[in-house]
Amino acid sequence: MTSEHFDLAVIGSGSGNSIITPDFDGKRVAIIERGVFGGTCLNVGCIPTKMFVYAAEVAEQIRSAATYGIDAHIDAIRWRDIRDRVFARIDPISEGGKDYRVNGPNTTAYLGSARFTGSRALTVTVDGQEQHLTADQIVIATGSSPIIPDPVRDSGVTYYTNENVMRIDELPSRMVILGGGYIAAEFAHVFSALGVDVSIVTRGPALLRQTDEEVSTAFTELAAQRWDLHLSAEVIAARQDAAGVTAELTTGESVTGDILLVATGRAPNTPDLDLSAAGVATHSDGRVIVDEFGRTSAEGVWALGDVSSPYQLKHVANHEARVVAHNLAHPRELRSIDHRFVPSAVFTHPQLAGVGLTERQAREAGHDVVTKSQKYGDVAYGWAMEDTTGFVKLVADRRTGELLGAHLMGPDASSLIQLLIQAMSFGLGVHQMARGQYWIHPALAEVIENALLGLDFGN
Ligand SMILES: Cc1cc2nc3c(=O)[nH]c(=O)nc-3n(C[C@H](O)[C@H](O)[C@H](O)COP(=O)(O)OP(=O)(O)OC[C@H]3O[C@@H](n4cnc5c(N)ncnc54)[C@H](O)[C@@H]3O)c2cc1C
Ligand SMILES: NC(=O)c1ccc[n+]([C@@H]2O[C@H](COP(=O)([O-])OP(=O)(O)OC[C@H]3O[C@@H](n4cnc5c(N)ncnc54)[C@H](O)[C@@H]3O)[C@@H](O)[C@H]2O)c1
């Protein structure tokens, strides 16, 4: 059996691709990718979804224009043009990235599926042919894949996931979305803004339950006005006929759509890797166990991103990739992964964003908690927008003045929260934040200024 040897082998071309920094110039590097080059975020995740979200926002703005004294209406939704704008931008980036690794300097690209066959030994199946390689260091960056509930998979009905729903040729009239998390909330917004009737089936009693309860409750109430919600419900069976795809629910109801979209969470891509052959240990949920430096239980094997991280977020995968890239090249000066203030945003309507502890988590952690919920509608820019639902909720420690968490629902939440991420990351307390700087008047950020000033420390 012939085998090639490398200094470094990276499995997965998402954030794994960015491991190959100039530190590896002159070294022998292999990158292995079994799917579309560039991974989830570029091809079927963050980037295309947000490009669709932008189109959805344009449609919603037109619908709400009359509020501001401007009469406007949508003449047509040209779905194929919306879709093709997105992928005409993305597909060449993916192709270019692949081409660079296939034909570029000092990397060997294996376009196939990798599995471990021993300690730092891999077999890659490329077009049915097995190729063998060994490496001094191996990075597992294989990401995650959609979880398909058994009743859906076993029923044999056609279902979509984030991997193919953005490429459909025609918009359906009705869509059933299974799941009530990030992906469900973003696609429900996109497709309903483009004219599709959306039903959501989720097993929890509210949508986006990982957010602060006040945000999750407020968002669920708004969602109920826009979408047909089936909460505390799971699918027990599904069938497909001339009427479409019908899901029978645990609640006794049934719901029918032309398309069924499954968004019930994502599992780490570890089952195909034969990790036991390399002595790489996993958590009970399949995630690779890593230490603070990104090292797995097997010497010379590292992991990062969705396959190992507690956060399935691109900015986290990129951060972990930067840390692991440094640590591979500087074994005597290891850096730690920083998961202290991991923010996230859901690009639905209205937008949601959060960082730090929820009110409940802060109380459970024993803080003397003070909170303030400040409405967008109470500041001048909020008046300009006629916003009636948006708010900023801050969670702070009454004793120390420390900002513990921030939770936003409303326009530009994903950008506004950056101020609070910065404050928390650099240890700025509430008083410093509120009065230690100018706040531009009458910018929307005044909603954050007022929330900070509204925290009642009792002094
Ligand atoms: C619809 C959607 C929207 C999202 N939106 C956002 C967002 O707005 N913001 C955000 O922060 N995050 C978002 N995410 C999450 C984000 O996409 C992921 O956290 C991130 O892409 C993970 O990067 P990764 O490098 O760990 O994995 P990936 O990018 O998934 O890369 C893993 C790669 O490994 C390959 N692979 C797997 N197994 C093997 C094998 N055995 N052999 C060879 N190759 C293999 C896969 O084909 C894949 O290309 C979104 C996710 C989805 C699904
Ligand atoms: N804007 C962003 O940053 C963004 C966008 C999309 C995805 N993501 C990442 O991708 C991950 C995966 O997204 P997701 O939405 O698939 O997962 P999720 O964990 O956010 O939500 C899964 C949802 O499905 C529900 N569910 C699970 N099993 C079910 C079942 N059998 N029947 C009915 N409901 C069920 C859960 O209660 C939950 O509401 C997210 O956790 C997030 O980290 C991030």
From TrEMBL:
The lineage of its organism: Bacteria, Bacillati, Actinomycetota, Actinomycetes, Micrococcales. This is Mycothione reductase. NAD(+) binds at G179, G180, G181, Y182, I183, A184, A185, E186, G265. The keyword Cell membrane does not apply. Gene3D superfamilies: 3.30.390.30, FAD/NAD(P)-binding domain. Residues 6-320 form the FAD/NAD(P)-binding domain. It comes from the Bacteria. The active site is at H441 (proton acceptor). GO terms for molecular function: nucleotide binding; oxidoreductase activity, acting on a sulfur group of donors, NAD(P) as acceptor. FAD binds at K50, T142, G143, S144, D306.
